[in-house]
From TrEMBL:
Pfam family, one: FCD
Regions crossing the membrane: none
Organism: Pseudogemmobacter humi
Name recorded for this polypeptide: HTH-type transcriptional regulator McbR
Molecular-function GO term, any one: DNA binding
Length: 221
């Protein structure tokens, strides 16, 4: 197989870097649903070429975070109420399957790492750092997902997790939601430690929906 030239690798790296920056900006609400992503503005902000920007748009479209509309440009993806319900239905199916596969009772070092992450999540929430709270929350759940032992299941769940990440952002400004999320995490950890799979699956699935309800309230859906 022919190797990529250093110039091609450099171009790929630039696309990846821009894609990651835009993905994070969308997830963290810096770009809102239905907002246009304008090539000229992105060129000024990131110093990226037109080719790099358009390649990043292709990747973001594949992730389900933007829509490329002929003659209308690129907008941040918005979901109808029906699409939201279908997304969360799929996430619940996948989350249940992951939860059914995580080894129980969990190893002490696994439990310790989850408790460390949850403590960091609460600390970030209490300082009002929404972006750090979101990152730690993703790390917490990703650790659990990986423990299922099926990388294809995890990859599929990650796709739906990414698509719904901007929805989760709407709940992070609510201190009650953050505290409840922290307590849910503790209940998950306790169930993993005890080997209570029924309780674990129940908590994992119920944990998904407050963010969706917050999104509906904010957007009057």
């Amino acid at each position: 197989m022919p190797r990529k030239s250093s110039e091609n690798r450099s171009g790929d790296d630039k696309v990846t870097a821009l894609c990651n920056a835009l993905r994070e900006a969308i997830i963290f609400g810096r770009y809102r649903p239905r907002e246009h992503l304008v090539e000229e503005e992105l060129n000024e902000r990131f110093g990226a070429t037109r080719h790099t920007i358009r390649s990043a748009f292709v990747e973001l479209d594949r992730m389900g975070l933007v829509e490329r509309r002929p003659n209308k440009g690129v907008i941040v993806r918005d979901f109808s109420i029906g699409e939201l319900e279908e997304l969360y239905e799929m996430r619940e199916i996948l989350q249940r399957e992951v939860a059914a596969r995580v080894p129980m009772p969990a190893a002490p070092e696994f439990i310790a790492e989850l408790r460390r992450l949850n403590a960091a999540y609460l600390a970030a929430a209490e300082t009002g750092d929404k972006e750090e709270s979101s990152r730690i929350n993703t790390d917490f759940h990703s650790l659990i997902h990986a423990a299922s032992g099926n990388r294809f299941l995890v990859e599929t769940l990650d796709q739906f997790w990414l698509r719904t990440s901007p929805i989760h952002w709407f709940a992070l400004g609510d201190s009650n939601h953050l505290r409840n999320s922290y307590e849910d995490h503790n209940r998950m950890i306790d169930a993993l430690e005890r080997g209570d799979r029924e309780r674990f699956i129940q908590t994992v699935t119920q944990h998904m929906y407050p963010a969706l309800e917050a999104y509906k309230r904010v957007n009057r859906l």
